[in-house]
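Predict the assembly for these two chains.
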Amino acid sequence: MRKIKVGMLGIGNIGKGTYRTLEMGRKKIEDTTGLSIEIVKILNRHPDRDRGIDIPREKYVTDAYDIINDPDIDIMIELIGGIEPATTYMADALRAGKHVVTANKAAVAANGRMLQQLAQENQVLLRFEASVGGGIPILNAITTALVSNEFTEVLGILNGTTNYILTQMAENGASYEDVLKEAQRMGFAEADPTADVEGLDAANKLSILISLLFGVGVSPEEIPTKGITTVDKVDIEFAKEFGYKVKLLASAKNVNGHVTCNVEPSLVSQEHPLASVNNEFNAVYVTGSAVDSLMFYGKGAGPLPTGSAVMGDVISIARKIEKGGAYDLQPHLRYDAGAVFDGEGANQYYVRMNVIDRPGVLGSIATTLGAHRISIETMTQRANPSSSRESMPIIFITYDVEKTVLDEAIREIRESSYVKSIENVLRVERIGQ
Amino acid sequence: MRKIKVGMLGIGNIGKGTYRTLEMGRKKIEDTTGLSIEIVKILNRHPDRDRGIDIPREKYVTDAYDIINDPDIDIMIELIGGIEPATTYMADALRAGKHVVTANKAAVAANGRMLQQLAQENQVLLRFEASVGGGIPILNAITTALVSNEFTEVLGILNGTTNYILTQMAENGASYEDVLKEAQRMGFAEADPTADVEGLDAANKLSILISLLFGVGVSPEEIPTKGITTVDKVDIEFAKEFGYKVKLLASAKNVNGHVTCNVEPSLVSQEHPLASVNNEFNAVYVTGSAVDSLMFYGKGAGPLPTGSAVMGDVISIARKIEKGGAYDLQPHLRYDAGAVFDGEGANQYYVRMNVIDRPGVLGSIATTLGAHRISIETMTQRANPSSSRESMPIIFITYDVEKTVLDEAIREIRESSYVKSIENVLRVERIGQ
């Protein structure tokens, strides 16, 4: 049995999960692939720290270049996260003729083009299934089984922390702040939750998906991104009443080569399969020219699900090494398919505001929206136990409108004497057909 | 650009869908893979019949062996369906050194072991993604990205016709017979719907999944299979009231090498992601040792979704042909993993019966069940507008029980003087954790 030697950077939670996935699956892997895969060196800057996992001490190295420059190592796994020094290590490993597998969405979103170029020049493979959707094998499906499809749309619930928070707010009627604290206590949210709750993590993943699906480069910074910190439990309650759930959606469309995208809290129709994706689960819903609508659902994070995706990439490369032949160096990330990035695009929006309850208010709002050619699908003025004549909620849902046009109309409405506050503006996503 | 030549058996709906998928996706396929794939010969026994698709007449052949024996053809696609002559054609193509791609679940379930053996002997590849779940790339995921996982469970909604019928019965309160007629009128059900509504189609697909996931051979005939013809709209209504939907589930478990399975109409908890799979959609929910729970959702039939899966296999093989090197001949269907088939196993069951409404009936039923050591999770006696004291529905849901034990208890209960009829027995599936 051919032995494939692997070096791994990082032995945090994901590193340990990857190591465990390999050990747990060793017999199955050998039976079904005929390959013996061994992680022979692991970068561990604190080899004396108890990691809570039984790994022979002699595997540990404290210098990444003990792995990068080791001619016996075929594949390097990068699991240290963050853009640097991870990008430099991966680039140097590719230059040294090693195949590279990474779970690092930030580095791939920021430097995927350069790393892919280096992989091609050095006739080696770069794979990053675990960078989007954790254990869900979506990137592999897009680049292999579904490759004959032109993709027109992707909708993703790509961040488990925010989905957990929104699910708990909906199920327990709790506030954002209370659920966040609980999530931090349970380990579902980081001490500094900014990258998750502000949508930056989802934007990194969406940037990768857009390149794979539509062949256009949109950096995470270019993606219009709004987090969940402004979602009020009142919005979740109104949404439920209207037949929606509130989810942090990462979405992108390709209409005749014009790619639009955003990451923002959105009302998702309860009929939509994404509406049943709860707690820490992720899902990616894609629409292709032949296959129509597909959804992939699973655990978007966690040591073992992420380890499953990392090992899937490692085994795929190991099979190619063993079989000989040329590597398929066609780039998975594409930046050349003739598509152009066209901003946020038109969407339906839910708007909640508080107004002074006096005759003519609804008509006045409708007139302002009409002057901006914004069509209203539904508008509701509704008293609730905490409302008074001085502060009455009005909710409306628009038909498709450019966000800039809506923003301008809302700016005008906000200046009206009867408007107390614009409470929230959220995207609306219907059943995908 | 290397040209890969393909021969195709069959130009019915799936054949046309496959041809269209290739033509629609040609530019994308060439851009992303660098390959030019051409279907050069098509078996068409009636070349003068108008097929409603623009295909050059000179591609048509009337003898399968014009394709099987053509040394210029690299890959044969088999889309004629049925066990024979499809199996013979595939076997002869493999012997002639051609790679084979098929959408034929009946032939793969019946003869996959022999065909796979022939592929290995002749150093060529056999692929059958489209045979399970139509466009959903589940087989590819199991055999590549997820290969480090030991799988413990699969639950599938694998037949679009029956899922459409059950969804429409639930949404419109219509009877099985009325919805079947409507489905036939709309082309969602065949004129002879037996293979679909009796669960045989789902059993073929489950047999393939069991071999891929658990490495044990269970023939479709061995799988305990019950169709949807006995599902009454009353069962769907009661299920809804208790928080369930009724789905035709194909399910299999592997508990320490003991594989149990069945295909039968089941109550699925509304919290379960499978509960939101409606109409003609299919889904496969698998649980692996590292990745935990995953669900793949999409169109399980139809010309273009099936064409997407067929072309995915063709392109995967074409890439390997172009890159040279040895083929990975490790079998995907496994019959040797040390697992044994162990029948139907223990499940929760819903039982609906009609009884004469007199004191002590509930207690008597509970006593009989207790004597068989069957624990009851919930039992309800419930009048409804159509019930009388002479025929009152009783519904109970058991905890896990072997089906043979339940059947024996029900046989005893049926003999009681107060029991008018045993109306239905359906499996119950809770949220997969």
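Chain A has a mean pLDDT of 94. Residues 13-33 of chain A form the longest helix (21 residues).
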